[in-house]
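PROTEIN DATA CARD
Card holder: Stage 0 sporulation protein A homolog
Chain length: 223
Origin: Blautia hominis
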Amino acid sequence: MDVIKVVIADDAEEIRLHLSEEISGEANKIRVVGLAENGYEAVELTKKYLPDIVLMDIQMETRTAGITAIGKIHEMFPMVKCIALTIHENEEFIFRAYMAGAADYIIKTNPTEKIVSSIHAVMENKLLLRPEVGKKLIEEYQYIHENQVRMKETLQVMLMINTTEYEILKMVYAGYTYRKIAEMRYVQETTIRSQINHILKKFKKSKMKEVIQLLRELKIFDE
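Structure generated from the sequence above:
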């Protein structure tokens, strides 16, 4: 087997150097050809050296800089395989890394043998989707699907709400009390409560806090 050329991208210099020293060598058949401290440098070093593997820290200059860089490398150099580096198993980040084109992920604190093994497995196309990763991908897909269904149902209800109800709903969402809303709209509080009841019926909810929680989760009023 030829020596595997690797680029390591991590915003912590000590981690870059540690990984480089640990995985390099004839015994592992790995040669580190470049070290990057951010996503931009990782892409540039990939252009320059065309490595076989890029070990990409997920969180660098931004929380998802590594994921963005993986996506760019996957698009520009599909023959280069990226392995996401993470300090802990964050399901959302791991899922997004796979969707961006990562071939695997490695916990930075893993033993050197495990990191080297992952690099060789990815390089030789022997890596099967780990059971725990498959489970996470399925759970994430289910979460997205459920959110899409809830979003569709919520938007259908929002289309049934009249202008007055919409304005009141938005004020409740912003944290105003029924009494304050009544003062601001120059009506009796009983009028606001009556309109709230109409809103609850349309959402098929018994409490307004349930409606607000749903709207917050779906970011309906977020700009």
